[in-house]
Structure formats: C-alpha cells, structure tokens
Amino acid sequence: MIDDKSNPGSTDRQPAISAFNERLIAEGTWVFAGGLADTGTATVIDNRGEQAVFSDGPFVESKEYLAGIWVWEAPDLDAALKLAAEASEICDRKIEVRPFL
C-alpha cells in the first residue's frame, strides 16, 4: 500500500479495510497485513562496515512511501491483480503487487 504525502488517501477507511480483510480471511486468501508508522519514525541501520551506523529518517526521501503491506495467497497473478484493484479502491491508496519470495 503506497501513500502520498502531497495527496494522502482518506483516513476514514479502516472499517472498510477491516471488512475486506475479514472476507479474505474467510476465503483463505489472507496471510497477514499491517500498517507502517510514518516515515519520520524510521531509523536506518548500516552495519556493513566496522561499526553500525544509525541514521534517523527513511532511507529514501520521497513524496510516496510504503504505508502498509498485505500478503495474500493467490492462485496466479491475475487473481492477485484483481485483489489489488479492489484493495486500492477500499483503502484509497495505490497498491504495488510483487511476488513474495
């Protein structure tokens, strides 16, 4: 789920999102989901050197950011895209679809 700082999605969508999740659970499609705190709460850790470096804020500054995640078990890409189109309407945000490895 992608939100946009300059044009955020509606904040009153939680009841509809909860109903959507309940339906997906009943259908056996839902694996898990969750929202993410604002990017201002992020801490980036780089421990590839001799010492860990901690930085406040998101790794990349962008007007669009990952606001939440759904993991679904869909039989194929077409089914996942259909769910994503429905989810985008329900949560009033863009949805990016990728396989979960």
Automatic annotation (TrEMBL):
<protein>
    <submittedName>
        <fullName>YCII-like protein</fullName>
    </submittedName>
</protein>
<feature type="domain" description="YCII-related">
    <location>
        <begin position="12"/>
        <end position="90"/>
    </location>
</feature>
<dbReference type="InterPro" id="IPR011008">
    <property type="entry name" value="Dimeric_a/b-barrel"/>
</dbReference>
<dbReference type="Pfam" id="PF03795">
    <property type="entry name" value="YCII"/>
</dbReference>
<comment type="similarity">
    <text>Belongs to the YciI family.</text>
</comment>
<dbReference type="InterPro" id="IPR005545">
    <property type="entry name" value="YCII"/>
</dbReference>
